[in-house]
Amino acid sequence: MGVIPRRRFAAVAVALAGVLVASSACGGSDESQQADGPITLTVDVFGQLGYEKLYQEYMAANPNVKIVERGTGSNLDEYSPKLTQWLAAGKGAGDVVAIEEGLLVEYKANPQNFVNLLDHGAADLKGNFLEWKWNQALTADGKQLIGLGTDVGGMAMCYRKDLFAKAGLPTDRESVSKLWPTWSDYVATGEKFKAANTGASFLDAATNTFNTIVLQTAGNGPGYHYYDMQNNLVVDSNPAVKEAYDITMDIVDSGLSGKFGAWSEEWVSAFKQAKFATIACPAWMTGVIEGNAGPDAKGKWDIASVPGNGGNWGGSFLAVPKQSKHQQEAVKLAKFLTSPQGHIGAFQAKGPLPSSPQALADPAITGSKNAYFSDAPVGQIFAKGAKTLKPVYMGPKNQAVRTEVENAVRTVELGQRTAEQGWQDAVTNAKKAAAK
Fold it and tell me: Partners of 69 in the beta sheet?
């Protein structure tokens, strides 16, 4: 999912409780364990991956296995340090763990912490994933596969039809999409919305919009944003980053943001209270919106095209830590959850867009509509360009750097710094984060 997720950003604000201890706290072989009877597999996740029904299917077919999920709805900024701590300690991690794409490079630097999925027949599954998604999880020498891909981001713009109607703007998704072919057009539309005095802001938070734009400009440009392909920090020298920052500053200067801190309790409440009209919307965000806005908002939301040209925000992997006592069964479960049918099931449950070509071509995806979002044809909207998505390379300290850049955006949004000061803060603090 992630981002917010970052999918910290996935999206979402319930921290993993530090008192939880995984059922598979230490390393070891699972063959001897299975002889003792049913086993428990713990799955560590963040955000909304949509696995609940899939777990039930798996347990029905494998009565010797009980699955326990930890962290549903959790904040990536809370989840990631816990996972890093567990891996370093050699105990505490689940049997299967979700890894957000922005953190993958960091975890690949210590491949000894994970089961090599190539040793468990994963090579035969390569065709089940978009090529670039598969390659992301390979170590540099190509000898170890850290994880199996879950979703990709895919970009759109979610909006509240009732607030658009109140502002005198069109409400059908085709007409709304035509309002903003570019980000400048998005700002112009926002200014019209603001002038209507609906009592709501045009968008939720500048950071979410900035992240969408920087991933879009990077994907359509050099293919990287904060780090180049040689892992050099290029925040201040990559035009894609500064371009995204400047566009975001135009949005901030126009007073269009509700200034709701992304993934905060205030942000969640703003959904329920209809305090903003648009939000940058990768596929996985649809589940977050529905969960935050609640059943009363069903049919009030819809989905339009994102300004600019496509983009990809989010995407995760499932890995098996070596410390698992049940490695063989954990790998089997990870394969099931990331199978084409697993991708379809997750999409139908919570909206994460498959990274499986077979799933993307399946009528269950291409013909899918989302009743909550006014029967929007989500399969067509998100899957249409999924096979041609341009991935953005993320370096070793991507999350730490991203946090500092977005913190700088936030200070400008809150009026604490000028745009120029915010940019200098972003560059300076990103360098400090990368050096740690």
Answer: 43
Q: Which residues pair with 257 in a beta bridge?
A: 203
Residue found by looking up tokens 């570019």 in the block: 182
Q: What is the mean pLDDT of residues 387-403?
A: 88
Per-residue pLDDT tens over the stretch 270-291: 999 999 999 999 999 999 999 9
- With the CA atoms of 397, 403, 405 and 411 taken in that order, what torsion angle do they form, in degrees rounded to the nearest 10? -160
Residue spans of beta strands (DSSP E) within 54-186: 65-70, 96-100, 147-149, 151-152, 157-160
Calpha distance 145→335 (Å, rounded)? 13
Note whether 242 and 256 are within 8 A (CB). no
d(CA 263, CA 406): 13
> What backbone phi and psi angles, to 5 degrees, belong to 389?
-60, 140
**φ/ψ bin of 160: left (φ > 0), alpha (ψ from -120 to 50), beta (otherwise):** beta
Q: Please give the single-letter amino acid code of residue 324.
A: S
Task: Provide the token pair at 60.
Answer: 């029905």
Condensed to tens digits (0 to 9), the pLDDT of residues 307-344 reads: 997 888 889 999 999 999 999 999 999 999 999 999 99
Neighbours of 52 (CB within 10 A): 15
